[in-house]
Amino acid sequence: MRIARPIILLSIALLLAVPGRLLGQTVPQKSAENINKLVAVLKSGAGQKEKMDACRQLGVIGTKQAVAPLAALLGDEQLSHMARYGLEPNPGREVDEAFRTALKKLKGRPLVGVIGSVGIRRDSKAVPQLAPLLKSSDQEVADAAARALGKIADERAVKALETALPGAALTSQLPIAEGLFRCAESLASRGDQSSAARIYDRLLAAGGAHQVRAGALRGAVLARGESGLPLLAEHLKGEDPILFLAAVKTAQEITGKDVSDLLIGELSRPVADRQIPVMQALGKRKEAAAAPALSQIAQKGDPQARVEAVRALAEIAPPSAVPLLFSLLSDPDAKVAAAAHKGLAAFPGSQADETLLTMVNSTEAHGRMAAIDLIELRRTKTALPALKKAAEDPDPVVRRRALEAVGKVGEADDLPFLLARFPGARDAADIVVMEAAFSDLGIRSPDREAYASSLTRLNGLAPEQRASVLRVLSILGGKNAIAAVRSSMKEGTGEVRNAAVRALVSWKTPDAAPDLLECARTTGEPSEKVLCLRGYLRLSSHDDLSLDQRVAAATEAVPLVSTVEQKRMLMSVLQRNATISSFSIAARYVDDPEVKEEASLAATAIAESIVEKNPTEVRPVMEKVLKATENERIVERAKAVLAKAGKILN
Amino acid sequence: MRAGKDVFSEKPSAMTIAEGRAVVETARRYARIYQSGVQRLSEANFTFANELVRRGRLGDVKTVRAHIAPWDAAELRHEWLPEQPEPPKEDMDWNLWLGPCPWRPYNPAYTAGRWRGYYDFHTSCIGEWGAHTFAQCQDAVGAGTTAGIEYSYVPNDSGDGMVVRFANGVRMVLEREGWRGTCGVKYEGTEGWVSVADGYERPDVSAPALLGDFKKIVAEYQERTQRPMNHGRDFFNCIKSRRPTVTNPEVMHYSMSTVHAANIAMWLKRDVRYDPTKEEFVNDAEANRLRSRAMREPWII
Lengths: 650, 301
Description:
The complex is a heterodimer of chains A (650) and B (301).
Chain A: H1 12-17, H2 20-23, H3 32-43, H4 48-61, H5 64-71, H6 80-87, H7 93-105, H8 108-121, H9 127-133, H10 139-152, H11 155-167, H12 170-189, H13 193-205, H14 210-224, H15 229-237, H16 241-251, H17 257-266, H18 272-284, H19 291-299, H20 303-316, H21 322-328, H22 334-345, H23 351-359, H24 365-378, H25 384-390, H26 396-409, H27 415-421, H28 428-444, H29 448-456, H30 463-476, H31 479-491, H32 494-505, H33 513-522, H34 526-540, H35 547-557, H36 564-575, H37 580-588, H38 596-610, H39 615-628, H40 632-649
Helix pairs in contact in A: 3-4, 3-5, 4-6, 5-6, 5-7, 7-8, 8-10, 9-10, 9-11, 10-11, 10-12, 11-12, 12-13, 12-14, 13-14, 14-16, 15-16, 15-17, 16-18, 17-18, 18-20, 19-20, 20-22, 21-22, 23-24, 24-26, 25-26, 26-28, 28-30, 29-31, 30-31, 30-32, 31-32, 32-34, 33-34, 34-35, 34-36, 36-38, 37-38, 38-39, ...
Chain B: E1 7-9, H1 17-29, E2 34-36, H2 44-54, E3 61-67, H3 94-98, H4 108-114, H5 124-140, E4 150-151, E5 163-165, E6 171-175, E7 185-189, E8 192-196, E9 204-205, H6 214-225, H7 231-241, H8 249-268, E10 272-275, E11 280-281, H9 285-288
Parallel strand pairs in B: 1-2, 3-6
Antiparallel strand pairs in B: 3-7, 4-5, 4-10, 5-6, 7-8, 8-9, 10-11
Helix pairs in contact in B: 1-8, 2-5, 2-6, 5-8
């Protein structure tokens, strides 16, 4: 931990030479002048911060000239890190020389840092100095040396690490293993696979930490290529759970039939803990040859293994699995049945669809229901005739499910089918599912106006059916829909009028706003007034309106606002639409004890946006806010606005 | 991971290109499972949008748009906040909080969220949301295991409007506005578009019919990949199966490489070209110096 030095002000001369603007940049302009200035900071009596900034910038633009001044700071506990920050990215060989010199002199944390930088730079010439440090009594130094040697990974570095491994203290084993891993990776990338394999073998044989053994097995297999398969097989069959899982993971990195065969072979051992990861690996490999073995496990065995087998089959998706997955839909184990259902819902190809067409005619109601569920999930267009037939099913549950599915699977062209049945649907549950189907088809319709028009032409509907149509129209929106709703507002009574009002209240576009305002003004029903005003205020801040339109709309509502809830909604609308007009309205409510906090917040938030152009108007209201509010955050904000207004006015 | 742990890491997960590469290598070296907290790759709306692209439902997608944070700037700050007394170590170990970053005096504002905007701690307004949105865009257009190759500097303070080009010809435009929620992406194809951000009930699409298959498409993705629409669950599943997570080290590293390269273009105030295979800027010594930062001892890569 470092102790901060007292902040030392730069000398006037230095300030003139190195403006703060230069030190504050991430990338200064590369010029001899700038480099000179930054080097001058390092050599001066400038403070820690300024020197750190100069180091950072020299890391980007420093040249040979910057090396010695930076290197001079490597032993300074406060600046050693930033000296490396300046040196490490500089590609000049002078930097390596400077680091090697520092290796001879430094101790403790600064030495640890320099060793790390030497590793990053892969300076082979430093190996003779690094190798002895593996035995340092300072554990951090020894660890850093091991990693740096691993980065360098030349012949001498490998030898030093291999020699150190057998006798290493427990605390040093991991860093040395890390160094050796790095060497092996470097050797493999240079094409020396056999040397890499030798290192991995040594790490595997050394035992030790589980992650080292796992990584060593992976490396030993991959470095050998095809000749590594026997080793992989040995550990896939082995009893060590760490190496077994490492082998499964490694298998996922190798393509080819041989590895798949090894994995499939492992499925013959009926041990769920082993089968499950192997099946998951086969699933990821999309290995069709695994289907027979997976099918067997899916039918009998450990419950969790059965679920995983079904999932793997769904992931691999061989056509041969379709009949089995269908048969498992009725499996007594609910988890297996659910996995089969999910698998079939997403199973590619037409075979599953063809089976569904047969199944939807099943004599069993639960079979027909399962088929309809899957047809809906798969969006099987070819099943629409079958769905329409099921919509006449004598079982009302099946019938309603089929009607719902027509809405999900069908297109706007299927509207006449639903329209023809709607007048006859007097049961409330039928009306509900048909309403959902109308909405689903309508939302996807390419011509919503025509679709809405077809709905509005329905005759002979009961009030509850007309109400249902109005709810669908509110979801569709558009000119035809709103015209029909207006008409129902005027002519309708009871349930129909109520549905028309609610349709307007939930309208998604601002074209319903005038109707809502009118209703709020003229209705004799208090509950309608509340609903319409709420709907109007919601639409008055719609994104489709301009800022002025939104404020004008909110202003229209002011004479109608009376309850606390309405006042709060009004304040919320005003707060989001900052103009001098919205500010004036909010200001009027600051004294209202029912909403003084909401009004104070709205007025303050608006004031923050408009104070620059309206300081005179803002000031008295903010003073009023300070008296009215008990919220500390609003007080803080209002004071800030007042200060700003004062500054502008004075 | 060196300690033998499987790791879930909050994004952005790497402050430099070199750090990202170290995460990739360490996870491989020790056969570890790693997941970056880029959770939108496990959310249904975003997955649906990506699937539309992968299935060709939008036609040929050559332009994607990625949301960057509408606050802060690409140019980061270097100043220090005023020093205040450090709290007891058992409450807050300032030295440990700083980790490999350059030392600076303690001020409680940093740990209360004001670390944002500082070069030592933050990846700028580009990385703030780009850590999510770039990974999403790259995954959608089949560039999940590569990074952008060309970055066009834009003369503003945020990178808004920067175009990043990938080797497959797709352009990714960085934008501060354009969505109703946070961390949005938009994919534009020859036959349609999809746009989605946090808070959307369903993605915005060029034609409502595209949404008709929403559940089907998401369900098919889940079965085909065995990825749940639950980011944490994906991590735990992968710990058991030893399969790579949806935001495995490569996904994190390559998307963050794009973030870092975009930042570097902004800091250098000029276009840059990047080679994702060599992981270096092309003939650009100045940019290459910004690929890594020396770590404060005793932290070393």
